[in-house]
Design a protein that fits this description.
The chain has 234 residues and is α+β, with helices and mostly antiparallel strands. It has three domains: 2-85, no CATH class; 87-192, Sandwich (Immunoglobulin-like), CATH 2.60.40.790; 199-229. The chain contains four helices and eight strands. The chain has helices at 9-19, 22-36, 56-85, 206-223; strands spanning 93-94, 99-102, 106-112, 123-128, 131-138, 141-149, 160-164, 167-173. The protein has a five-stranded antiparallel sheet with strand order 1-2-3-8-7, with helices on one face. Strands 4-5-6 form a three-stranded antiparallel sheet, with no helix packed on it. The protein is flat.
Length: 234
């Protein structure tokens, strides 16, 4: 069972810290199996007593890999469910230095700041079409809280920010009506298939409202066996 592995974490973590990377850690692990076990020995004859049939050892490795791959996927899905339950990360995520959410037209970001940051001049927010930088002024210098290239273009002229107690609020105006899977390039992406893609009626213009009203009317007329809008005489 996966949970039984916890008792070995300390020893394995020590090896990983010593070698410094996953590839070398795997080399240590499989090297141990090669030198100290019959993991790589093949059972080729009926009288062979040690080893595995051809392909069996590889199958064991793949089966174990897929077990934890499924667990990782389940964890990822659960994280997005948790994000969806929090208005601050709805359709978005919680990251190290900020929280973000989104709707059809805008991205909202909340960047926590120290309690003593209470004036606008203590904050630097630079919003550009393809980048964002957020910093606070402390001790004669700047402490950068968020910086990087955006995954999608924004309209910097209509994007806004404000300082509230304990946080900086940033509203980014999307240039295109599509869902973002991340704010900054290189950060972990969310699965946009797990978010709520329903469009808020507040973001629909009058022409689109008219189309939606007509479609709704036609749908109910069809259910009742009555003529739809295009079948009715004006």
């Amino acid at each position: 069972e996966p949970e039984l592995s916890d008792r070995y974490d300390h020893a394995l973590l020590g090896i990983l810290q010593h070698v410094g990377n996953i590839q070398d850690f795997l080399n240590v692990y499989f090297g141990f199996l090669y030198r100290k076990t019959d993991f790589y020995r093949l059972l080729l004859n009926p009288q062979d007593r040690f080893g595995f049939p051809p392909g069996a050892a590889q199958g064991m490795v793949m089966q174990t890999f897929k077990t934890y791959e499924r667990l990782a996927l389940k964890d990822h899905e659960q994280r997005q469910e948790d994000f969806q339950d929090d208005p601050d990360s709805y359709n978005g995520a919680v990251r190290k230095n900020y929280i973000w959410s989104q709707d059809y037209a805008d991205v909202e970001i909340k960047v926590p700041v120290p309690k003593h940051i209470i004036k606008g001049r203590q904050v630097t927010v630079d919003l550009r079409n393809m980048s964002v930088r957020v910093a606070v002024r402390e001790g004669g210098g700047e402490h950068v809280l968020m910086e990087g290239n955006l995954t999608h273009k924004i309209n910097a002229d209509t994007s806004l920010w404000s300082l509230e107690p304990g946080k900086i609020l940033i509203s980014l105006s999307k240039c295109g009506e599509y869902w973002w899977n991340a704010i900054l390039e290189g950060e972990e992406k969310i699965d946009i298939d797990k978010i709520n893609k329903e469009r808020s009626m507040a973001s629909v213009d009058e022409e689109e409202h008219a189309v939606l009203d007509r479609l709704t009317f036609d749908y109910h007329q069809k259910l009742q066996g009555k003529p739809q809008s295009h079948e009715m005489k004006v």
